[in-house]
Amino acid sequence: MDLRDEHVAMNHTALEMDSGEKRLNELGYKQELRREMTLFKTLAITFSSMAVFIGTPLYGPSLKYAGPASMIWGWVVTTFFTWFVGISLAEICSSFPTTGSLYFWAAHLAGPKWGPFASWCCVWLEIIGVISGIGAQAYSGSQTLQVIILLSTGTNKGGGYFASRGVFLCMYMGLTIIWAVLNTFALRVIAFLSIISIWWQVIGGLVVIIMLPLVARPTQPISYVFTHFETSPDSTGIRSKPYAVIMSVLLSNYCLYGYDTAAHLTEETKGADRTGPIAILSSIGIISIFGWAYNLALTFSIKDPNYLYDVNNETAGALVPAQIIYDAFHGRFQNSAGAVVFLCIIWGSFFFCGLSVTTCAARVVYAMSRDKGIPFSHIWRKVNPKSKVPTNAVWLCAAIGIIIGLPILKLDVVFTAIISISTIGWVGSYAVPILARLAMDEKNFKPGPFYLGRSRRPVCLVALLWICYTCSAFMLPTLYPIQWKTFNYAPVALGIVLAIVMLWWIVDARKWFKGPVRNIDMLNGNR
Questions:
Q1: Are the C-beta atoms of 34 and 388 separated by less than 8 Å?
Q2: Which tops the pLDDT comparison, 522 or 518?
Q3: Cis check: omega of the bond before 481, within 30 degrees of 0
Q4: Are 98 and 367 in contact (CB under 8 A)?
Q5: Which of 130, 184, 405, 494 minimizes the number of CB atoms within 10 Å of its CB?
Q6: Mean confidence (pLDDT) of the chain
Q7: CA distance 91 to 276
Q8: pTM of the model
Q9: Could you give the CA distance from residue 492 to residue 371 in angstroms, rounded to a whole number?
């Protein structure tokens, strides 16, 4: 082949290059992961990371804090502000379609002076958040499975089996290990399971949302669902009404994040500069509607609000939505079979969500290891040559997820702490690139297909303020008086970890960590 033919061939290859891969090369990275994901597959995994039923364990506490009205309307308010965060991230994702996503964005948007520090803060918040997210889904799945077994073996009143702490921990570990094993296969396996997940949650969600109120008839009046406000100071210790409302809205804050999963898959997605933003915004829209409808279905179906929390009821007071579903089916059919089926649908949602969160966590660890920002990075950044999956990163995330669940054996507040750490870390990491985008000079930003233009400042400002509120809310004590068994130790645990990370930065990391490391030289368009 002469030089002319070679030049033509190179130009033809450049024309055929995926737009996401082209932008990745411009940013200094070569394509290492297999780019085979479509928009639907990316949306499926992102949707699974959020999940329709993800707020099930928090429904009971939220209802108790301030009654149904604050919980139902709190979801609407939270959804409104979540759109600002999602739109801000979608714009940045369109410009920077990389697996490193948030911390990569922070580094580039903050500029050469502050980029390394912004990147460092962002990535460690995100690592803390996503790995804790594995623990949150493992706990939720185990709790739901615990109640399924209880109802299937005779209920709490009928001598059914209620799993002990040790058995509960085994369930927790088992789910985490299964997710890790599945994530060692090629991404197309996870994508296939996520497609099953999206249909499982859409169809299953519609079945639960439509059928539950029909089975539970007569239902609660509309006035109870949308206007009834009632605090429970005797059981929560919270006498301040604004404080009670903040606690009640935690359900919505916890459910409406995780949409950045689409960004972590951009190096494996076709046309990622377009499909990434679409997947982010589509996930928010779908979950906002389905999640609110699920909360409405549960609230309309309540029979006796006080009985839901009785430790002597059929579900041992372990999971309020399970008791609502049980009361509906047992009241109409005098058996619990339908309740078990519905709870299996909910459990499947947690299973698929945990699987997707594990996928997301492994990509974050892989991206940071690729940039040599984690101890023993050469181990965690290895990609399986056959499956093109960062297998070592997967197992590291699973191992840490299991470790943070070990306190289950002794403490009752483990779930509160895990979801608080996950939310503060995960949502808090959104703040860093959004703040950098807000502060940067617009002429230094290369927009992608999704661009906010002049509206980016007000949108980013509202998003940043909402993130600050959300993180602050999850640091508050959830029960009073504060005792060892009721103490929300998330701020302490998170504070210790972040103090170590910051000390590491001051003493050593600032000398060598420069943010994302280019692994490709782009010179005049050639490699």
A1: yes
A2: 518
A3: yes
A4: yes
A5: 184
A6: 85
A7: 10
A8: 0.87
A9: 29
- Which H/E stretch holds residue 92? helix 56-95
Residue in the block written with tokens 């998330």: 490
Structure tokens at 399: 């191992």
Structure tokens belonging to residue 427: 């949502």
- Which residues make Cβ contacts (< 8 Å) with residue 280, sequence separation at least 6? 46, 86, 89, 90, 93, 259, 260, 262, 263
Do 51 and 257 form a contact (C-beta atoms < 8 A)?
no
How many angstroms separate the CA atoms of 414 and 90, rounded?
33
Tokens 């209880």 correspond to 150
Cis peptide, bond prior to residue 218, ω within 30 of zero: yes
- Give the long-range contacts of residues 218-224, CB within 8 A, separation 24 or more: 219/300, 219/301, 220/68, 220/299, 220/300, 220/301, 220/302, 224/68, 224/299
pLDDT tens by residue, 152-202: 998 999 889 999 999 999 999 999 999 999 988 877 787 788 788 888 988
The model's confidence at residue 15, banded by pLDDT at 50, 70 and 90, is very low
C-alpha to C-alpha distance for 119 and 64, rounded to whole angstroms: 40
Residues 6 or more apart in contact with residue 441 via CB below 8 angstroms? none
